[in-house]
Write a structure and sequence with these properties.
Blueprint (H helix, E strand, L loop, with lengths): L2 E5 L3 H12 L3 E5 L3 H20 L7 H7 L1 E4 L4 H4 L3 E4 L5 H14 L5 E4 L6 H5 L8 E6 L8 E6 L5 H13 L3 E6 L6 H17 L5 H12 L5 H8 L1 H15 L8 H8 L12 E2 L8 E2 L6
Parallel strand pairs: 1-2, 1-4, 2-3, 4-5, 5-6, 7-8
Antiparallel strand pairs: 6-7, 9-10
Helix pairs in contact: 1-2, 2-3, 8-10, 8-11
Length: about 300
């Protein structure tokens, strides 16, 4: 397996393309939005240069790795020739279903199609194709070039052969794969999102402020990042979407998103990507400043 397709050049997509290219694979990176594609390529180059500055890769390797990435705005013959395609589009079921329908009609019959979804059913995605045995989840963690974990999610019909292959492939990327079954949120987000939601509820109920909640979890539970800062980093819209998948999938009110989270997403306060969530974010600055709505 030499040629890998990646659909979507956002935060996760460009990270996945980066990692495959860094480990010697030829990558076809597709995003129908040219501006997003250019931004994704710029991010890959910036992150590779950061790795070179830290001595993780050689300076001379930066250009070589970038040369392995073929960026396109259409699903063309290059995608059709890929042995594996990893979808990393927006966490929206209908968008993902449409992509997999397209890939199923374009890609060669033996190609494996994977989704980087953080919560959407692999079995449902597979039902939109004629190759359910070759559909699997590859849930990378953000930032992809840094984080070691890959959740490998088996759909109801995913074959043992495909699952074993993806487990071994993940190891070749210097990742640690963990096989999980196809239930809403899988493992990572089935545990993480209720915790984040409870932190937002704690803020909403006035138990403590943003910094206080995050400090308790960082110093008391040894978390590297507080849950509210982490929610900003993930994207509050993504957190809300995952909570709704959990709520719908399990039919349990304990997964109901906090009204504060719903209001913030509705108001466009999405965290780092919008410049404001529970904290405000200034380009080039790492200083955390509590957002105006939460200042005492």
């Amino acid at each position: 397996m030499n040629k890998i397709g990646v659909i979507g050049s956002g935060t996760m997509g460009n990270g996945i393309a980066h990692v495959f290219a860094q480990h010697g694979f030829d990558v076809v990176l597709v995003d129908t939005n040219k501006a997003a594609l250019d931004k994704g390529l710029a991010t890959i180059e910036k992150n590779l240069k950061r790795q070179a500055d830290k001595g993780i890769i050689a300076e001379a390797d930066v250009a070589t790795i970038i040369s392995r990435i073929n960026a396109q705005t259409v699903y063309g013959m290059d995608i059709a020739q890929c042995d594996l395609v990893v979808e990393a589009a927006t966490e929206n079921p209908e968008i993902k279903f449409k992509i997999f329908e397209q890939l199923d009609s374009i890609c060669k019959p033996e190609a494996i199609l994977a989704s980087n979804t953080s919560s959407i059913s692999i079995t449902k995605i597979a039902s939109k194709t004629n190759r359910a045995d070759k559909i699997i989840g590859m849930h990378f963690m953000n930032p992809v070039p840094v984080m070691k974990l890959v959740e490998v999610i088996r759909g109801y019909n995913t074959s043992d052969e495909v699952c074993n292959f993806i487990m071994e492939l993940s190891k070749k990327l210097n990742k640690v794969p963990v096989e999980v079954n196809d239930y809403p949120g899988f493992v990572a987000n089935k545990i993480l999102m209720p915790m984040i939601n409870e932190a937002i509820i704690t803020l909403h109920e006035g138990v403590a402020g943003v910094e206080e909640i995050d400090t308790v979890m960082k110093l008391g539970m040894a978390h590297p990042m507080g849950p509210l800062q982490l929610a900003d980093f993930i994207g509050l819209d993504v957190c809300l979407a995952i909570l709704r998948v959990l709520q719908d999938g399990f039919g349990n009110p304990k997964y109901a998103p906090c009204p504060l989270l719903v209001n913030m997403v509705t108001a466009g306060k999405l965290g780092v990507k919008s410049g404001e969530g529970f904290y405000t974010y200034t380009p080039g600055s790492k200083e955390l400043i509590v957002a105006p709505n939460f200042n005492k």
